Structures are given as structure tokens and as C-alpha cells.
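[step 3/7] fold_predict: job queued, chain A
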Amino acid sequence: MEWDSSDDGLGGSMEALPYLSESSQSMPSTTNISEHEFSCHCCYDILVNPTTLTCGHNFCRHCLALWWESSHKNECPECREKWAGFPKINILLRDATDKLFTEVVQRRRAEIQDNPKISRSLLAFQRYGDNLGRSKPNQHKGAGFFFSGVLTALTCVAVMVLVYHWSSGVMEQQDMLISKPVSHWTPEDVLSWLELLGPWAQLYREPFQQESVNGRLLLMLGDEELLKAPYSIDNQAHRRAILAELDRVKTLGVKPPQNLWEYKVTNAGKSLFLLYALKRSPRLTLFYLYLFDYSETFLPFLHTCCPAITNIGQSVESSFLNTQMEPSWRQWGEFLVKYLLLPYQLIAEFAWDWLAVHYWTSRFIIVNAMLLSVLEGCALWRLWARASIRAMPRKMWNHLWKMLSQGFAFALLWPFFPQFVCNCLFYWALYFSPIINIDLVVQQLMHPETQAL
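[step 4/7] structure written:
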């Protein structure tokens, strides 16, 4: 009985052998799988966190992040086909590589974690995907949302332009002086011009009024005439200030602009160009003023931002004369340091000096200059963090070429634009640009790695 039972068991096992051999022949052997089938086509090593693109190619997650950061393109590194959405990790392929090549995958993951550059690229790539996911709901709001925003912005600008024109009645006399030739000035125009020189000039209003000094007589006045009766201007600093302003009037033929709005009236296209150019490239713009507008614009700008050392008891009229003198070496040194390192601070200091004349406008300019300084600092930090300093000369050349081409195009096309459009662009850049830059600064500070250079 024992032999029979063992014989039956042996016979059962022998009958099962063909089925076992067939199943073992049908199962794939892991020894036949090569590393090449699971290698990344960027680093040619075993895939780590394999990511599958829409074209079907697989790459290491960190290799794809480095490619995206360097090229700033959403396309496959191998076939150049653009991917749709945000690439995800292929979980099935990741589990397979983890089981088949455990030691290699663990070693490569440790190397990736120890590399700060790869870690930053992976973080930037993931934040790019997060931002892409958050922006998708906004894409379904339709064209009505876009056009309503544009309409609101244009309405605000149009209202601001209209308010400015309505309130310009109080400046009508000054507008006449900056556009009216000096030879055609009436005695009232001369008195208005004298009042604009400063409070100290009120001392000499009565003799000018009694003599009915008009524009032609004003141009004939000199140092001897101002010293004698009926003017009797004994203060030498006062005479020099009046004569210096008279020289400017004779040179220009009209009253020189003394605030932002007067400068905009006399230099409509130039003011619009400077407003945008100082925001985009303050260094090149100041260099342009130095070459082509030295005495009228650059020299007063330098004296305002980098004033000379003055005596405590120096009068206002004497400080006015100093703005017409050549800067000292100390002023040049201070200006060049700020020009190279903090160009937007020069603009902020210039606007600060005009707080008494333009209360809110100066504050808008100061805030915008601070925001632009932060944005420039973030851009330099990205260059340093990504070890892209070597690309600085190429970027500077591209920036120079872009600014020159845009400036040349502006010089040719701006006279053909209606004045209303130019005013809209001017007030938009002056008052709404800080609001846009606030949003850009927030994005930079919250997600610094996701910003493209």
C-alpha cells in the first residue's frame, strides 16, 4: 500500500512536468533584459524617476528639468516635438527600474540629492508645473474677461488724461510762456516769469512792473542795467541768478520748462521716450543724455542726484547757479558708482527733489524705481545661481541691440501717432506701471526659480 501511494504521487508529479516546462519557457528571463532598454537618452544611464512625454520618449526627471531650464522650451530633447500639459512620472516604468536595477537607482538618487544645481532645477520645474496647473482655470473665462480688463484700463487712462486737461487751466499762463517767443512777451508775462524764479525774486517785482518791462526789453538787460536804478539789484547772487536764467531764455527763445508737465508740453515725444527708456535701460538712457542732451537735461540731473558740498548758509539762488556749473570730481565719482550699481536710485533721488512740485507723481516714480531695483537684483541673482555669468556679454549685446532698434523705430513712428494715444501711453507708464511691477516682484520673491531669463 505504501508503494502504491508513492507510485501515485510520483506519477502525478511526472504528469505535471510538461506543464511546468511549458510555463517556464513562456516566462521572460530577467537575465535577457539589457540596461540599454532602460537608459535615458540624455545622460545614457539607468532611468531615475522616468518621465514619459507625449511623443513616447522617456527621460530622467532631472535630465528633463535641466533641459527645460537651459533651453526654455517645452519640447522633447530627442525628437523636438512639443509636449502637451506638464510631463508626469511613469509609475510603472519607475517601479520596474527600481526592482531591476536597485543598486544603480539608489546610487544615482543619492548623487542627485547631493547636487544643489539639480535640486534647484527640479524645484523650478515642479513649480513651473504648479503654476501651469493654476493658470488653466483662468483660460476658460473667455474673451469677455480679457476685453473687460482692457476696457477698464483704457477707461482709467482716458479719465486721467481728461482730468489733466481740465485742470490745466491754472497752468495756461505757464504753458504760454514755454511756447511763446520771448520777444512777444507782455509785461504780465515777464512778471509771471519773474515769480517762477523763486520767492526771492518777489523783491524786484515792483520795479519791473513800474517800468513795464516786456520781452524785448528783458532781452536787453545786463549786469550793469540790473545794478542801476530803477532795478537796483545790489545782491550779486540775485543778479547772477537772473542773468543765468536770462541766458537760458535767450538760448531757447522761450521760457525753459521747470516741472514735469511743462517739459512734457515742450518735449512730447522725448518725454515719452525717456519715460519708457529709463524704465527698460536706465544706464543706456543716461549715457544717451550725456552724449546728446548734456547741458539741458543731463547736467541738472547730475547736480540734483549728486549735489556739490555747499555752505550751510547758502541761498536758494546760489544753489540754482551751481546746477549750471561743471560737476566736480567728487560728484562724478558718486554719480558713476550709482550709475553702475544703483541706476534706479538716481531716478528716485531726482524724483525726491521734486516732491514739493509733484507730490503724488514723485511718489509714484520713487515706488516704481524701488520695484525696478528689486527686479534687477532678482535677475542678477538668477544669473549667479544658475552659473550663467559667462552669458552676460551676450545678453548685454542683445539688450543693447534691442534698445537701439526700438529707440530708432520710436523716433520714426511716434510723430504719426495721435496725441491722445501718446498721452495714454505716457500716463499708463507713469501711474500704472508700478502696479504691474508690484505683481512681478511678488512673483519673483515667491517663485524665484521659475522665472525665465
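[step 5/7] annotate
The two ends are 88 Å apart (CA to CA).
The chain is about 65% helix and 0% strand.
exit 0
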